[in-house]
What does this fold into?
Amino acid sequence: MFFRWNWVACSFCLVLNICSPDASGGLVQSCGHIIPESPVLALGSNFTALCILNETCLDFGNIYANQIIWKIKNRVVPKEQYREINRTVSSVTFNDTSSLATPLTCNILADGQIEQNIYGITVTVGLAPEKPKNLSCIVHQMSRFTYVMNCTWNPGRHTFLDTEFRLRYSWPEEVFPDCIPKGVNNSCTVDDIQFFVNTEIWVEAANALGKAESDRLVVDPVDIVKPLSPQNVSVSSGILPTILKLSWENRISDAVMTLKFNIRYRIIGDTSWMEVPSEDTASPRTSFSVQGLRPYTGYAFSIRCMKEDGVGYWSDWSEEKTGITTEDEPSKGPPIWRIIDASHSPASWTVHLMWKALKPFEANGVILQYEVTVRDKSSLSSPLKKYNVTSTNHTLQLPKGTYEVTLIARNSVGASPPSVLLIPASNSEAPVKNLRTLPKHDKLWVGWTAPNNYVLKYVIEWCLVSSSSDCIIEWQIALGDVQGVDLKGIKPFKCYLITVYPLYADGQGSGQSVKAYLKQDRPSKGPTVQTKKVGKAEAVLTWNHLTVEEQNGFIRNYTILYKTIDGNETVVTVDPSKTEYTLSSLTSDTLYTVRMMASTDNGSRTGPDFTFTTQKFGKGEIEAIVVPVCLAFLLIVLLGVLFCFNKRDLIKKHIWPIVPDPSKSNIAQWSPQVPAKHNFNSKDQMYPEGSFTDVSVVEIEADDKKSFSEQDLKPFDLLKKEKSTSEGHSSGIGGSSCMSSPRQSVSDSDEGETTQNTSSTVQYSTVVLNGYRDQTPVQVFSRSESTQPLLDSEEKSEDHAGGADSTAQRQQYFRQNGGQDENNTDRPCFERAKQITHANEGDLVGFVQLQVSGQSSQPLGLGMEKNTQEAALSNVLQTCTEGQTVRPETVEENPLSVDDMPKSYLPQTVRQGGYMPQ
Amino acid sequence: MAAADSPSAALRRRDLCSRGIRLAGKMRADVVDLLDIYVEQQGLDASVSVAAVEGVPLAAVERWDEQTGTQRLLENLAAYRAFRALLAQMLEEQREQLGEADAGLGRALAAVLLQVSAFAYHLEELLRLESRGIPGEEGDEPPPLPRLSLFEQKLRGLGVLRELAQWAVRSARDLRQLAKPSPATGTAPGLAESP
It folds into this structure.
């Protein structure tokens, strides 16, 4: 480790001022000093300093050398390094100056242990200069007569000291002023240099510790000249189109040196330089004709020079100058191709001829026009057709056939060789095989396997596939001996359709196509998926293919990712050709999120999420439930209907309790014309349907007891008597109907309690007077749905005939009726009574009339009617007065009273046609 | 001549001759350029005729082709020593007249002076190779030139430069003559060339 020893030399002198005996004299005297004074020491060397005390101080201050303390800066030097030479001199020794620091002071420890400084010195430590190395010089030409010599060298290690470098040069008898570098220590420039004399050049380095010289370089400055480059370079075209003449001026005198040259040139726009062979320009000159250039081509030239013998340095390249060679006739015919449009007519073609403009080095000038010649090869007699075209395409309408098209390009000098294109009637020759592509940096290589036949050349067509615009065809021609070309100008991430046609001497092969990408990327967007149909456990997903612009590459597959809200994502890979996929095994009535990813070789892109909910029921499930239920219902209904039909009698009995047929009553039995009782079980037999003309219903509310007070009933008694003698069966029946619920008697379709109320209903029905089927009508009273107590005995007998069950039911029926409809029997009875009362209030006779109003014109027997009315009224009164409950006893009692009743039911004489309902 | 027989001496001689020839050519070119500058700067007419200047050796010599090599070297050395003194005088006079106002002319004069000195060194070296003693210069210092008027100084300067240009041509031819590998060098006449 080095310390930085490059201290500023500053005198440091701390003087211990001690008043001398003659201090009154005013002089201040130092008590000692250090030898050497401010030394410059070599780094790493040893060093000894002496501190010498003045004798005068010894006596005055009792100061001696053994009291001396040495310090470096503020650090005391170890006493081992001290040496007391005598009583006034102390030395200190440092074995390595690298441990030194400045200042080095000599101090004294006076009485009272007070440390006082005697003297101090500055120590400078550094290195002697090294020998400068690698001295080299170049003479730069600054102007035509001015030269400067710049010399550089390696100054060697850092010395930590001020080191002076001098560049010295001399002739044997001439010493020149030294060149002293300014600001640097490794180069210097001499501006007064003379040629043709060997000059000795060297560098001297010197500092306080020493001096060093470089090796001496003896050189004639003319041999180290870097001349200025030629100036005023001009380029002129010569007679020949391949030559340009270059002229220039040299800026160095021939008296100083003769020059040789380098000429370089390049085509304008190119970056690579070509160089004229150096041996062609190795002699002094001021012009040169560059040959072998392209016609009508711009060139840039540059030139440099150096001493002819090659000793020295090349000048810089001159400023570029440009020139253009003259025109020459085109070197080759333009490549030609065609597009045939046969769509508008099967017999003729629209032939779009197109050719490429010649490259500048082929055109050798400005192409003024193209000459197109078309020859019909299928008809030898047809004349040649010539067209002069200035553009690079031409459209012809030609009959379908085989043609030979010749194209010539012309410039101001001449015509190109012809380009020939054969257009056969059909591309019947063999195509290329194994067409393939391979990206190569920014080019797309297209390769193929040649057909077996000899191919003149290949035409490679390509176009950018777009979903929005037509394929704009580009093309190029390759020679027949190649099996691959590089397509330039291919954009990355775009789909290209490439077609290769082999051209034969006598025809053309059909094109083979391939799609290719120069570089693929992941799709720019993902497919948008949606559901086409959603079921219970499956969903049919549909999507559209990405457009070719969105694909950015070949779609290798689609990936469907779907999941429930809280479920894991399921991934399905789908063939890229499909646009529909059915997800199966889904959970019913569940929300699914589905998205779709399109993948190319270089990545994937996912489309937007789509959600759908599976159905709760699957297809046909509802039908499977509803239809059987309906069918079952229908079946039940049907069975019910059948049952009802089968049991209609039974039902009928329940709905329409069998009213004892008056015709089967004792009266009927009583009547001599009436058949035997047992023959009247069926009303149908006696009164077939249709024989009833009407039903008369008389309803009397029996619950209004008050309205049937004793007084009120008196007229009834009277009426009874009257009616008992009157003829008229309906009034008597109607009277009794008042005792039962008139509501029930109105309709036989009522159900439930209504049906049960029938027990209180007395319905007297038609009296059929018509004869059955031309039989002599029997005058009978027909009664339906009557529970008239009077007829109970008949019912009973009939029930007996029908079976014990029906009897029991009947009894039950009446029992229920009486028990359940306490109130009901009241009100209807009252209501009906009100109606009756209403009639009675006016005229009780009117009531009777009312009951028989429909029969008023008929000659009814009052006595008969009176009896009937009487019986009915008695019943009414009995029911209404005795209470709401109709006890079985009451029912039982009725037959007893009924036993007397038949006397009042006499066969009625009605007019022919039967009894008409009211 | 013994030294001239050794190959190294021959190479050295050839090298000196070669450099001397090129230096003479360079010197002539520079002097010609300097003449143009000088005439312009001093306001002289380039076509002015200047009589022979005292102390300036003449380049033209009769029977040049009959001179020996040593003769040539000695004449050249004498001439260039004279030119060195004359040019130094001119340089001093020019500095006195123009001061630092025209540093270009001064630098050009100094450059030519250096070349003259260098050429004199070449000649001395060649004479050494010829094992000839180098003649001492006449006295330690050249005789002081007569004090001239300013115009006379200008004309003298013009005459010095013109004559130096002539000498540069002659010197080049002398050295070419010396460089020829002729065994009779020094005794036999060289090519019949006139300066």
Notes: The longest helix of chain A spans residues 621-646. Chain A touches chain B through 17 residues (CB under 8 Å). The first strand of chain A starts at residue 32 and ends at 35. The domain at 227-324 of chain A is CATH 2.60.40.10 (Immunoglobulin-like).
